[in-house]
Design a protein that fits this description.
Layout (H helix, E strand, L loop, with lengths): L1 E5 L11 H15 L4 E6 L1 H5 L8 E5 L7 H14 L3 E4 L12 E4 L4 H4 L10 H21 L2 E4 L2 H11 L6 E3 L14 H7 L6 E5 L9 H14 L6 E5 L4 H12 L6 E5 L3 H10 L2 E4 L8 H8 L4 E4 L4 H5 L3 E4 L4 H12 L2 H15 L4 H32 L1
Parallel strand pairs: 1-2, 1-4, 2-3, 4-5, 5-6, 6-7, 8-9, 8-11, 9-10, 11-12, 12-13
GO biological process, one term: lipopolysaccharide biosynthetic process
Keywords: Transferase
Protein name: Glycosyl transferase family 1
């Protein structure tokens, strides 16, 4: 069977989140599956630096950005030319005119639950058009897929309820935390470079509105009234300095909270490892997640995790996280203060975190996906034989 995978998120700056899921899927499938042939649709950077050794995995250049008209028009033609038997879209952006057999991974329904103009740089009318198109594409993906893959039981129920689908049409394959990388030796220099004052809380990710980072500003405002310019702890927000982070940083400046926040921007892996190891805790105030990979990755570094008691997070993080209500400012301050004052608690959370991450594996995710491909391979084969039989008896 020839399987196609839309891996345009593979590699480059998009190698977080969706890109990581897609990359790990392709990498582990290439190690596990020696029988099927794969056509992997990638953008130019991944195409030029293709490193998969399995000869059954063939990269095909697909220079079309996601969420564009070019994607809608050209991807179906490119896939048809590759003559795949089954297509896997690791994101909901399935072209509306693609109706051949496909599987789709829908990680979450953020686009439906958080339709806000604050989550875009577009003007109001352009945003409304884009949001309408996004909902239409998502509905097409959910209703036309041979099977939906998602990344948590929470998301499975959310998708089933929203689209009125049977739970049997959706399969859960959990994501996994990355292995840790070595921390750099010049730690004192890095502390100065990033203007860090310990203890600090760490957050790694984007600054979209549903991440609820503005609630951390509210926390800092309360602390500032008590501690003035000498914060009891800092908050380090790591992420590419885009429109959303700039907006957040401007609010920090407006409220004179510069001593309470550090914005390192994009951080390379070795230095990011350092930030994890040195952090007193990782804080994750998100209002909604499909899986919640960042706090799991924090656990892999031995960093205690504080997380909002929302969506999938209790399911994924289990007892290894200390929870707070995402809109309770005083509650957030309380859990941080308790954790920072109790070394035994921090040690216990580190141990629970190491145990929790062992429950998840990219290899297991890829094997489960492979078995799904094999199941549909049999269905496609049966349908093909039935068509030949019907043709012969006409």
């Amino acid at each position: 069977m020839r399987i196609g995978i839309d891996a345009r998120f593979f590699g480059g700056e998009q190698s977080k989140g969706l890109g990581r899921y897609t990359q790990k899927l392709v990498e582990y499938l290439s190690l596990y599956d020696q029988t099927n042939s794969y056509t992997i649709f990638v953008q130019s950077e991944a195409y030029q630096h293709w490193s998969i050794k399995n000869k059954n995995f063939t990269p095909v250049l697909a220079p079309y950005h996601w969420y564009t008209i070019a994607e809608q028009i050209h991807m179906p033609r490119l896939i048809k030319k590759a003559q795949v038997d089954l297509m896997h879209f690791p994101h909901f952006n399935v072209p509306l005119f693609y109706n051949d057999p496909f599987i789709v991974t829908i990680h979450d329904l953020i686009i439906l639950h958080f339709p806000t103009e604050r989550a875009t740089t577009l003007g109001p009318w352009l945003y409304k058009i884009k949001h309408w198109a996004g909902k239409k594409v998502l509905r097409h993906a959910a209703l036309k897929a041979r099977k939906i893959i998602t990344v948590s039981e929470f998301s499975k129920k959310d998708i089933a309820n929203f689209f009125h689908l049977p739970l049997t049409s959706i399969m859960v394959t959990y994501e996994a935390a990355e292995k840790t990388t070595a921390s750099p030796k010049n730690e004192t220099q890095l502390l100065k470079q990033y203007h860090l004052i310990k203890p600090y809380l760490l957050y790694v990710g984007n600054a979209y509105p549903h991440k609820n980072l503005e609630k951390l500003l509210a926390v800092a405002i309360v602390l500032q009234k008590k501690y003035r310019e000498n914060p009891p702890w800092q908050i380090v927000l790591v992420g590419k300095m885009d429109y959303f982070y700039e907006r957040l940083r401007n609010k920090v400046i407006e409220n004179h909270l510069e001593n309470y926040f550090v914005f390192p921007g994009f951080v390379e892996d070795t230095q990011l490892s350092f930030l994890y190891h040195q952090a007193a805790a990782y804080i994750f105030p998100s209002l909604y997640e499909g899986f919640g990979l960042p706090p799991l990755e924090a656990m892999s570094y031995g960093t205690p995790v504080l997380a909002a008691h929302t969506s999938c997070l209790p399911e994924v993080l289990g007892k290894a996280a200390i929870y707070f209500e995402p809109n309770d400012v005083s509650g957030i301050i309380k859990v941080v203060s308790v954790l920072l004052s109790d070394e035994r608690l921090r040690k216990n959370q580190r141990e629970l975190g190491f145990a929790q991450i062992q429950k998840y594996s990219w290899e297991t995710m890829a094997k489960q996906t492979f078995l799904l491909y094999e199941k549909h391979k049999k269905k496609l084969s049966t349908n093909s034989h039935q068509e030949k039989f019907n043709s012969a008896t006409d």
